[in-house]
Structures are given as structure tokens and as C-alpha cells.
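Re: the 252-residue chain
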Amino acid sequence: MPLATVAGGSIHYETAGEGLPLVLLHGIGSNSRSWRRQLAGLCSDFKVIAWDAPGYGQSSDPAGKPSMRFYADRLRGLLDALDLPRIFLLGHSTGGVVAQEFCRANAGAVEKLILADTSKRGSKSKLEERLRMIRTMTPAQLAAERGPRLLSPSAPESLVREVVSIMSEVRPAGYEFAAIALAESDTQDVLRDLRIPTLLIWGGEDEITPVWDEVPPGARLEVIPKAGHLCYAEQPEKFNDIVRDFLSPLRG
């Protein structure tokens, strides 16, 4: 089981393939298992690495004050442990906010940036709802309530079951820590000052984080039809093709 010791805790990650490193950061209700279609579909082109964020999957729980900087620092520690000075970085939803925060302090470490179905400013109203749910429901109940909303109405039932299964693995300590960090985040200045090639990918039917009204200067937007918030799981071939095209040395 791949584990790295970072700041006294352990970070679990999955990896596949060889070549230029592509690091995948999951959302608040997911873990590294969510990226199985990217680990399988992109491993012939890249060394794909999907972490379990602190408090998720097989990684140890976070400690201290919740913040996006906490996750960015742990990601920096993981990359140092793996001897990866330069990476392609792909973050989905909350993972996209982590990616933005990582770029704030480590812009020189990111060759190209991909943000999928993410946000640029936290919401206190969403925090209240998330805390209410994780404090009054079991993870399985939370997953049954929230999981289906992450997909489009046309998603196959097998995928809905998979999403619910993965979300049922959230740990209250990790989920609550992430929810607070997300609510207090603000990366608008990071997006304004981006100096690296950046791609936005969105599910055309994402009702969790609808596509942004404005695309950051210099960035490119790709919208995937017939896909909800988890567009990478619902339309993986299209998602992977977009990623591969953008990260090609002759494109992007």
C-alpha cells in the first residue's frame, strides 16, 4: 500500500503508469477510488497519482486549524516525498480549490493546471448544511442523500451505486475539517494572477457548482454534455481525451 509520511501523518495514494506526473485531487465526498477511470485511462500517457486527502480513504486524520493551506502544504510534502519537483495538477471540486491554493505558494511546481467543477470562494450557508448533515447522519445516510445529486439524471444506476458507495466511506472528522476549510477559502486572486496554462472542465448538467460566468484570463473552458458534477466518472472517455489533449506538449 503506497504511503508517504508527511508532517507526522500518513498520506495514502494510488499510482499507475510512467512518464510525466499527473496528480489528481478528489472532492469533499470522494477519495482516490473515485479516479479509477483516470488511473486506468491515462496511465499509458502519464504517471498518474491520486491521493487520499488527509482525513479520507487510508490517509490519517488532519490536525490543527482547517484551511486550504493545510491541504496545500500536505500536498507539497507528498510531492517532496515522491521526489516530484514539477507536475501536472488536476483538482476536482474541493480538490480544485486545494489545487488553486497549492499554486498560490508553489506556482513554479505546476507545469499545467486543470480545474474541474470547482469553486473560487467558500460559502458559509453551504457549510451550515454540510455540518448539519455530517453531525446528524451516518456516512451511509449522507451518501444516500447526496450521492445521486452529483450525477446527471441520465447516469446509469451502477454508477449511482458506485458514487454512493465511495461517499459512504467519508469519515466525519475528515469531512468536517474539509467543509470548514472550503467555506473559508477564497482563491479569486490566484485565478486573476495565473501564469501557467490552465484548463477548466465542467459537466454540462452540474447543479452543485455550475459553470463560472467568467473564465480566468488565459484559461480555456471545456463543457462535457450529459454529465453532472462528477463529469470525470460519468463521461470518462471524453474527460480523459480533453485532459490528454491539453497536456500534450504540442497542445494546451
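Residues 3-247 form a domain with the Rossmann fold fold (CATH 3.40.50.1820).
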